[in-house]
Amino acid sequence: MLTDLKIQRLKIESKTKRYADRDGLSLEVRASGKKVFLFRFQWNQKPQTITVGHYPSLSELLSILVYEQNIIKRPSSPIVQQPALRLQT
């Protein structure tokens, strides 16, 4: 599981790298230095990805809460709910 300390210590490399966390949630560290939380899932047998938020403005705990509250517990497509997931940063 990714913790705040582990995320801070991740090194920025010359290309984008993803670090899986749990239940489709992952952290992408981009070459530009940005750290982005992503949620990956299957919808209608097609892989989908939603950007949940950027680190550090969206902490690991908050990203898990957003993920659980807005995606898992609702029967409709997460793509339809994507605008509701975006937080003002």
TrEMBL record:
One of its GO terms (biological process) is DNA integration. It comes from Legionella feeleii. Gene3D superfamilies: Integrase, DNA-binding domain (3.30.160.390). This is Phage-related integrase. Transmembrane segments: none annotated. Residues 2-59 form the Integrase DNA-binding domain. The lineage of its organism: Bacteria, Pseudomonadati, Pseudomonadota, Gammaproteobacteria, Legionellales. Keywords: DNA integration. InterPro entries: Integrase_DNA-bd_sf (IPR038488), Integrase_DNA_bind_dom (IPR025166), Phage_Integrase (IPR050808). The keyword Lipoprotein does not apply.
